[in-house]
Amino acid sequence: MRILIVNPNTTASMTEKAATAARAVAASGTEIIAATSRMGPVSIEGHYDGALAIPGLLSELKERQSAGYDAAVIACFDDTGLEAARSFADVPILGLCESAVVTAGFLAQRFTVVTTLERSRVLIDNLVRRYGMGERAKVRASDIPVLELEDAASGAIGKLRAEIERALAEDGAEAIVLGCAGMTDLARELQAIYGVPVVDGVAAAVKQAEALVSLGLSTSKRGSYASPLPKPFSGAMSGFSPALKVG
After folding, report:
1. Which letter, b or e, does each residue of 56-75 get, where b requires 16 or more Cβ atoms within 10 Å of its Cβ?
2. Signal sequence span per UniProt (predicted)?
């Protein structure tokens, strides 16, 4: 089984962090392939960044079709481009937020998602509600720019831990979800410190991708995720025309 991990931002160190987390949980027969977008923002913080990251994400999905992959994981907790990717691809596509909150729902009645900035908190709160977990989950921002998670001297880990402690004390959280792909390497350590389940979206998405492939299931192509209708696209978007889709 081959699972493609696509980082929709252009920071390669974040891709490697996600790939390491994915390989740590992948089954022995699963190959993890990591890809970094070659166009768009260095980090995704809010709607504007997310919109401009989607072309790079779709390019990676398209260009790697010839080598083949059985499922793909979008390594951003905003589930950037998830709907478009599911419409484009013929294999299961997993997003970190959806995978993480579903997993947390198996483990706790109440949980808190701890993310980076307030602009991301609002976006993720909307996703959590859309995924049916709005009555069980709270979303908190820890005031950490995403790229500070790549800098050990930034103080980001202290801010994250302080917000987790507030979630446990004030929210009645029974589990914590890490609301950024850049936090993926911290899950095991934080779980040991706080004694509650700490869910990392990368690990959750990889295991769910493996399950879907093993069950022989993929995204429905009837209705909302039907393949795009062939038509010309203009200008810089001409290469994204569905008429040019491979496979």
Report:
1. bbbbbbbebbeeebbbbbbb
2. none
Distance (Å, whole) CA 27 – CA 48 = 36
Contacts of 182 (CB under 8 A, 6+ apart): 14, 17, 116, 146, 147, 149, 150
222 lies in which domain range?
2-95+203-240
Could you tell me the pTM of the whole model?
0.93
- Token pair for residue 145? 């720019």
Residue 65's identity, in one-letter code, is: Q
Integer Cα distance of 23 and 36 in angstroms: 16
Looking at the fold, whether 80 and 10 belong to one and the same domain comes out as yes
List, for residues 139-198, the tens digit of each pLDDT value. Answer: 999 999 998 998 888 889 999 999 999 999 999 999 999 999 999 999 999 999 999 999
Digit-coded pLDDT (tens) for 24-61: 999 999 999 999 999 999 999 999 999 999 999 999 99
- Is 52 within a domain? yes
Whether residue 79 sits in one domain with residue 38? yes
Plot region of 235 (φ>0 → left; ψ -120 to 50 → alpha; else → beta): left
Per-residue DSSP letter, 223: S
Q: Which helix (H) or strand (E) holds 35?
A: strand 31-36
